[in-house]
Write a structure and sequence with these properties.
Shape: globular
Radius of gyration: 10 Å
Strand content: under 5%
Helix content: over 70%
Number of domains: 1
Structural class: mainly alpha
Order of helices and strands: HHHH
Length: about 45
Amino acid sequence: MRLFKNYGILDYLSVCYDALHTTGRQYIVEDIEMFINARRNSF
């Protein structure tokens, strides 16, 4: 949960829910990993 909070994942999932809920679990996990990596690289 700390990781999600630090990188704003819950906000991201909330905003992108419409698109993400139509995809599979693996895609969502990969998308979250890319989001975290992008945020890490921007800090």
